[in-house]
Write a structure and sequence with these properties.
With 507 residues, the protein is an alpha/beta fold. The protein is built from seven helices and 20 strands. Pfam families: LRR_1 (PF00560), LRR_14 (PF23598).
C-alpha cells in the first residue's frame, strides 16, 4: 500500500498532538510578558497542579487561550493589568471559585463566563463594562459580585437568577434605575448603590429579607424612608455630603454599625437611646471629639482614624464596653488619664500620631491584647506598661526610645515586640522573662551589646538585629540558635553574620 493510502490518524491522536503544544505557547507568552517563573512555573506538572495563579500588575493586554488548560485552578487573580477581553477558554476553568479582574480595561465578558459553575467571587470593579452577558445568571454559586466603577447603564434580567448572591456592589456606574431583577435576590445581605437608587431599593426591601448591610454614595440628603429598612445592621454613609440625619434613623432598631461624617455625631448621640444595638461607630471629618461621646455607652468599637484630632475628651473613659479603639493617623500629642477606665479594651491603635508620653493609667487596661504606637515621638515608656498582663502585640516602631523599663519583662503573654528604628543603646535583663515571645525586631537601633538573658527566650522564632553597632552576640543566644535547630531565624549585618556563624559551628 502506498503512503497516499495510509490509514489517517485518529481524531484523538490529532487533538493530543495539538494539545501538546499548549504548554510551550503558554510559557512563551509568560516570557514575552516578563512573568517570573515563581508566578507561573515553567514546569508542566507544577502548572497543571496549581490551584491559585497570581498575575497582578504584569501589564499584559491579552490572556492566552491556553489558560483554559489549567483545570485545577480555584483562584485566578489578574488585577491591575491591561486586559480588554477574556478568551472563551476561560469557561474551561470549571473548578474556579475566585476570579479577580479588578482594574483592567474590559468592555465585555465572553458568554462562556456562565460555565464557571463553582465561581463564588467575581471581582470586576474598575473596568469599562457597558453590558453583562445574560449567561451571568448561570453562576448559581456566586456569592460576591463587584461591579463598581464601570459604565453599566442596565443589568440583564438574568441577574435575578443568582440565588446565592450575598454581596453586590453597583456604585460608580450609569444606572438610572435599579433593575427589577434585584428583588429576586432573596439571599442578598450587602448592597452598595448610588443614593438616587435608594427609594427603589426600599420598595424592594420586602423581597430582600436578608439585607443587612447598605452602603450609599452621592447623597445630599437621606430620605425619611430609610426607616423602612428595619433589618439593617450596617449602614455606610461615607462618600456623601449629608448635612443632617433624618429622625427616621431611630427606626433602625437593629442597627449595629454606622459609618458617617463626624460633623453629624451630636445628632447621632441624641438618637442613641433609640439605637440600642449600635455597637460600632466609624467617623471621618473630625477635628474634635465632643464630650457627649461618653453617652454612647454601648459602643464596643470606635474608629476615629484618619481625622485631625489633637486631643481626646476625658469623657472617652465613659465608654466602658469599648473593646477596640482606633486613633491612628491623627495629630494627638497626649492622652487623657481617663483612657485607663476602658477596662474592656482589647485593641488600641495610636499609630501615626505625635505622642511624646503615655499616661501611667495606660497600665489599667488589663484586657488589652494589641497596642500599636508606631510612628510617634515617645522617648520613654511608663513603668505601668508591665501591668498589661494580657498584651500579645506591642508595636513601638519609629519612636525615640532610648531605653525600656525593667517592667517590660512582666508582659508574660507578649508574642511580638517591634522596636524598629528607635534609639535603644541597651536592653534590660528582664527581656529574658518574655517566655512567650516569638518575634523581636531590634533593627535600626544603637545596641552595642545584648544581655545574656536574651538566650532565655525559648519560644523565639524571629530576631532582627540589622543596623546596630553590635560586635558580637552573647553565647547564650548562640546556644539557643543551635538548640532551636532551625526554628530560630536571626538577621544580622553581613560582616557580623559571617563571624557569628563560624563561632556557632565551634560551640
Amino acid at each position: 500500500m502506498t503512503d497516499d493510502h495510509k490509514k489517517p490518524k485518529s481524531r484523538t491522536q490529532t487533538l493530543a498532538t495539538i494539545d501538546d503544544g499548549w504548554f510551550e505557547r503558554l510559557c512563551a507568552w509568560a516570557d514575552e510578558s516578563d512573568i517570573q517563573e515563581k508566578e507561573l512555573p515553567r514546569n508542566k506538572a507544577k502548572l497543571l497542579a496549581m490551584q491559585e495563579l497570581w498575575l497582578n500588575r504584569a501589564r499584559f493586554t491579552t490572556l492566552p487561550v491556553e489558560i483554559g488548560q489549567l483545570g485545577n485552578l480555584q483562584g485566578l487573580y489578574l488585577w491591575d493589568n491591561q486586559l480588554t477581553s477574556l478568551p472563551a477558554e476561560i469557561g474551561q476553568l470549571g473548578n474556579l471559585q475566585t476570579l479577580d479582574l479588578w482594574s483592567n480595561k474590559l468592555s465585555t465578558l465572553p458568554p462562556e463566563i456562565g460555565r464557571l459553575g463553582k465561581l463564588q467571587t467575581l471581582e470586576l470593579r474598575g473596568n469599562k463594562l457597558s453590558t453583562l452577558p445574560p449567561e451571568i445568571g448561570q453562576l448559581g454559586n456566586l456569592q460576591t459580585l463587584d461591579l463598581q466603577w464601570n459604565k453599566l447603564s442596565t443589568l440583564p434580567p438574568e441577574i435575578g437568577q443568582l440565588g446565592n448572591l450575598q454581596k453586590l456592589d453597583l456604585r460608580g456606574n450609569q444606572l438610572t434605575a435599579l433593575p427589577a431583577a434585584i428583588a429576586q435576590l432573596g439571599n442578598l445581605q450587602d448592597i452598595t448603590i448610588e443614593g438616587h437608587l435608594l427609594l427603589e431599593l426600599i420598595d424592594m426591601a420586602p423581597y430582600l429579607p436578608k439585607l443587612k448591610s447598605l452602603s450609599l454614595f452621592n447623597l445630599t440628603a437621606l430620605p425619611a424612608e430609610i426607616g423602612q429598612l428595619g433589618n439593617l445592621q450596617t449602614l455606610d454613609l461615607s462618600g456623601n455630603e449629608l448635612t443632617a440625619l433624618p429622625a427616621a434613623i431611630t427606626q433602625l432598631g437593629n442597627l449595629q454599625e454606622i459609618t458617617m461624617d463626624g460633623r453629624l455625631l451630636l445628632e447621632l448621640i441624641d438618637m442613641a437611646p433609640h439605637l440600642p444595638n449600635l455597637k460600632s461607630l466609624i467617623l471621618y471629618n473630625l477635628t474634635t471629639v465632643p464630650g457627649e461621646i461618653g453617652r454612647l455607652g454601648n459602643l464596643q468599637s470606635l474608629d476615629l482614624a484618619w481625622n485631625r484630632l489633637t486631643n481626646l475628651p476625658a469623657e472617652i473613659g465613659q465608654l466602658g464596653n469599648l473593646q477596640s479603639l482606633d486613633l491612628a493617623l491623627n495629630q494627638l500629642t497626649n492622652l487623657p488619664a481617663e483612657i485607663g477606665q476602658l477596662g474592656n479594651l482589647q485593641r488600641l491603635d495610636l499609630s501615626d500620631n505625635q505622642l511624646s508620653t503615655l499616661p501611667a493609667q495606660i497600665g489599667q487596661l488589663s484586657n488589652l491584647q494589641e497596642l500599636d504606637l508606631d510612628n510617634n515621638e515617645l522617648t520613654a515608656l511608663p513603668d505601668s506598661i508591665g501591668q498589661l498582663g494580657k498584651l500579645q502585640e506591642l508595636n513601638l516602631r519609629e519612636n525615640q526610645l532610648t531605653a525600656l523599663p525593667p517592667e517590660i519583662g512582666q508582659l508574660s503573654e507578649l508574642r511580638r515586640l517591634d522596636l524598629w528604628d528607635n534609639q535603644l543603646t541597651a536592653l534590660p535583663p528582664e527581656i529574658g522573662q518574655l517566655d512567650n515571645l516569638q518575634g523581636l525586631n531590634l533593627e535600626w537601633n544603637k545596641l552595642t551589646v545584648l544581655p545574656p538573658e536574651i538566650g532565655q527566650l525559648g519560644n523565639l522564632k524571629r530576631l532582627y538585629l540589622i543596623r546596630n553597632p553590635l560586635t558580637d552576640l552573647p553565647d547564650s543566644l548562640k546556644r539557643l540558635y543551635l538548640e532551636r535547630n532551625g526554628a530560630l531565624e536571626i538577621t544580622l549585618d553581613n560582616k557580623l553574620l559571617d563571624r557569628v556563624l563560624a563561632e556557632i559551628l565551634n560551640l
